[in-house]
Amino acid sequence: MTDSSRTVPLADVKHVRIRHLQEAKRVRERFVMLTAYEQYAAEIFDQAGIDVLLVGDSASNNVYGHKNSIPVTLDQLIPLCAAVTRSVQRPLVVADLPFGSFEVSTSQAVESSVRLMKEGLAHAVKMESTKHFAPHVSALTNAGIPVMAHIGFTAQREHQLGGYRVQGRGDDAKRLMEDALALQEAGAFCLLMEMIPEDVATGIDAAVDIPTIGIGAGASTTGQVLVWQDMAGLGSGKPFTFVKQYANLREDLTKAAQAFAKEVRQGAFPTLDHTF
Ligand SMILES: Nc1nc(=O)c2c([nH]1)NC[C@@H]1CN(c3ccc(C(=O)N[C@@H](CCC(=O)O)C(=O)O)cc3)CN21
Ligand SMILES: CC(C)C(=O)C(=O)O
Ligand SMILES: [Mg+2]
């Protein structure tokens, strides 16, 4: 296919659908995904032209105060997802299947995904997967549930993978290629690759027909994703290697809170302007 087969540029699309992401891959147009967990961020990212919003299981450590992704539950993610979907017009909303909500059986995967769509109003689900989860992806696809597959570093397997480590170095690249091809074959509409060497990601992107999304996977993927609080500089501590901070929200919010506290303590707020 050539550029002449395209419909409209992604930026002009009114409601982002899976077929628009597939078209982006075909015409080599990039798309943009950020996480979102509530109304204001979702609304702002919609208005800023972000194409896909991910209600990540990273809500575990970015909303619920856990140290990692493992404790967050389906019951905790569903209301966040519903809030995000209710707050946006244009973006495609994808919800993570949290740890423990899909592994047991293909039925469990379908039941959890149905809840993410019926109660959470998600348009698609994302599954941290390997080739061994091809039956799960296939069961979801057959049930009419679009699945984004997530390979490479997968935080739900932190303990099995031995920590937060780049995946697919050296001979291990073959394993990721097998995962990618099996998950595409099973029906995944998109492939997310996390923390893998750029050359490996480039090879996988070229080998699959479906669009790819990278986080710490270099520049050759169709789309890029970051956790929004990382992107906006809200988190504490040193940013991960794959993060670029486009704002300093932590600093801004600290200053605002300090200024409010100071004025209250001094009796400088409220003034007559803010008083009935
Ligand atoms: N705030 C936040 N950002 C994320 O990107 C994120 C989450 N939370 N929670 C779920 C997972 C966990 N992720 C993580 C967590 C830690 C590293 C990390 O420590 N990276 C280091 C070392 C990598 C290495 O050298 O192998 C880095 O500097 O990137 C990476 C991804 C990605 N996801
Ligand atoms: C890191 C991204 C891709 C994710 O899965 C999440 O935020 O949960
Ligand atoms: Mg996740």
TrEMBL record:
Molecular functions per Gene Ontology: 3-methyl-2-oxobutanoate hydroxymethyltransferase activity
Metabolic or biological pathway, per its Swiss-Prot or TrEMBL entry: Cofactor biosynthesis; (R)-pantothenate biosynthesis; (R)-pantoate from 3-methyl-2-oxobutanoate: step 1/2
CDD domains (alphabetical): KPHMT-like
Signal peptide annotation: none
Catalytic function, reaction form: (6R)-5,10-methylene-5,6,7,8-tetrahydrofolate + 3-methyl-2-oxobutanoate + H2O = 2-dehydropantoate + (6S)-5,6,7,8-tetrahydrofolate
Pfam families xrefs: Pantoate_transf
Record's subcellular location: Cytoplasm
Catalytic site: 194 (proton acceptor)
Binding site for 3-methyl-2-oxobutanoate: 57-58, 96, 126
Alphabetical keyword list: Cytoplasm, Magnesium, Metal-binding, Pantothenate biosynthesis, Transferase
Required cofactor names: Mg(2+)
Top class in the EC scheme: transferase
Domain of life per record: Bacteria
Binding site for Mg(2+): 57, 96, 128
Cofactor details (free text): Binds 1 Mg(2+) ion per subunit.
InterPro entries to which the protein is assigned, alphabetical: Pantoate_hydroxy_MeTrfase (IPR003700), Pyrv/PenolPyrv_kinase-like_dom (IPR015813), Pyrv_kinase-like_dom_sf (IPR040442)
Keyword Cytoplasm applies: yes
EC number: 2.1.2.11
Function: Catalyzes the reversible reaction in which hydroxymethyl group from 5,10-methylenetetrahydrofolate is transferred onto alpha-ketoisovalerate to form ketopantoate.
Subunit structure: Homodecamer; pentamer of dimers.
Entry similarity comment: Belongs to the PanB family.
Name the record gives this protein: 3-methyl-2-oxobutanoate hydroxymethyltransferase
Organism: Arthrobacter vasquezii
Annotated gene: panB
